[in-house]
Amino acid sequence: MDLIQCFAFILLSLFIASFVLQWRRRSFWRQPDQKRYPSAQENTTTVIIGAGVVGLCTAYHLAKAIDKKRHKVIVIEAASQVFAATSSTNTGILSYTGFQEELLPLAQYSYDLWEDLGKDTDFRRSCGYKENANFALKTGSGEGDGEPIPNWIHTKTDWHAIRDPPDSKMAIINPVALGQWLHKQCLNLKVEIRLNEKATSVDLDTTDGTMSLEVIDGEGNALNLQCNHLVLAAGPWSPALFKQLFPQSSAKIEAVISAGEWFVFENPESFTEKSIAGIYFNDIVGQKLEFAGRNDHTIWTTGEKSEVGEVPSVGDTPKPDPGKLAKLRAYADMFLKHPHTSGGKQKLRVLSHGRSYRPATWNSLPIIAGIPPYNLTTKERGHTKAKVFINSGHGAYGITLSMGSGKLMSQMILHKQLDLDVSRLGPSYI
Ligand SMILES: Cc1cc2nc3c(=O)[nH]c(=O)nc-3n(C[C@H](O)[C@H](O)[C@H](O)COP(=O)(O)OP(=O)(O)OC[C@H]3O[C@@H](n4cnc5c(N)ncnc54)[C@H](O)[C@@H]3O)c2cc1C
């Protein structure tokens, strides 16, 4: 081997060695269960706080849109199950109209996503989803407009039922079943759902620019989760949680929370296609009174709203107002059919009852926004690469709006073009 050949051989060896080294390094970063969290470009982790309908719809859309080898989605939930709070204790109406002007495009965008899902027979069956099954009862001629009334309510001859609203789209869904469906979809999409873990604080000052979120598990142990994106979807707890996590932030979420008492009864009648329906007695009784027949053989009812100053601590069972419960029970006894046995008329069987909270903001608009890093602390602008987002405050329409707001939030996280301009749906800054 002469000198030139020797030199060429050394060069070739160096080239091969550097190629092998680079390849090994790249495959190291690809390890799925690595404990280290390198920079956002190479490996990204998004943590969503709250496994209600808003948190799980966000996780669902995000997980559908990402490269799962490079981007991990984690949902942390303080309770021992998903849909532990308001998301499973609501009427389940999905509507297209009746929104304030600023919300209408989001409501229609979201409703269209539900409608698309509703084309799938499995989704309809498992979630008890049904279109055009919402009726308002009115006193009048008794003739109505020929709309079918389910077999689980007493009808009076002078009542008539009309589709509500008559010329618009409306659907109904069983929120409990929806929670199970979303949970399953998220697990299939490799979303990690961590139950019994409560977010308590955030450290934005990590050396690699990610965030370190402290969570307390069911046994009281503190754990740290490194993440690049953090999404607050903690429903009625979002305003207080944001303040707790970012005490120096200039962003303010002002909450206006209203509560509703509710009952779930066993449906005493046999299940038919007509059993799934929303029936509204507002005109008959002169106040809000809703019943919903569901695919799990239950009937849900809720009545008047009441404004409340604050919500109980996360995980605590809310205490219903006894007076409002008694009134609601009396209406249910009056309007629902009772079980009959050989011994005669029996009492309606109560499966559960309680109170739940609508997570609303001062202007009744949800917050679907990213918070710029320089608005998170009073420190130097942009000192962290960590991205914080809020998807919360959906008020009385959280089920309707969640599929749309979850999709828009996932587009925001991924820096994609948003399907809808939601720039007006942000927090206020001081
Ligand atoms: C009586 C009633 C009837 C309603 N009817 C309808 C209807 O017919 N149609 C409709 O569209 N909407 C309806 N709504 C509104 C809808 O139910 C809510 O807007 C929606 O469920 C809110 O969902 P969410 O995910 O924001 O909140 P939630 O369901 O409250 O979820 C938030 C989750 O965050 C968790 N969490 C909070 N803090 C932490 C923490 N620090 N760490 C970890 N986890 C945390 C909580 O445990 C909770 O599970 C109704 C509401 C009520 C009260």
From TrEMBL:
<dbReference type="GO" id="GO:0016491">
    <property type="term" value="F:oxidoreductase activity"/>
</dbReference>
<dbReference type="InterPro" id="IPR036188">
    <property type="entry name" value="FAD/NAD-bd_sf"/>
</dbReference>
<protein>
    <recommendedName>
        <fullName>FAD dependent oxidoreductase domain-containing protein</fullName>
    </recommendedName>
</protein>
<dbReference type="Pfam" id="PF01266">
    <property type="entry name" value="DAO"/>
</dbReference>
<dbReference type="InterPro" id="IPR006076">
    <property type="entry name" value="FAD-dep_OxRdtase"/>
</dbReference>
<keyword id="KW-0472">Membrane</keyword>
<dbReference type="GO" id="GO:0005737">
    <property type="term" value="C:cytoplasm"/>
</dbReference>
<keyword id="KW-0560">Oxidoreductase</keyword>
<keyword id="KW-1133">Transmembrane helix</keyword>
<feature type="domain" description="FAD dependent oxidoreductase">
    <location>
        <begin position="47"/>
        <end position="412"/>
    </location>
</feature>
<keyword id="KW-0812">Transmembrane</keyword>
<feature type="transmembrane region" description="Helical">
    <location>
        <begin position="46"/>
        <end position="63"/>
    </location>
</feature>
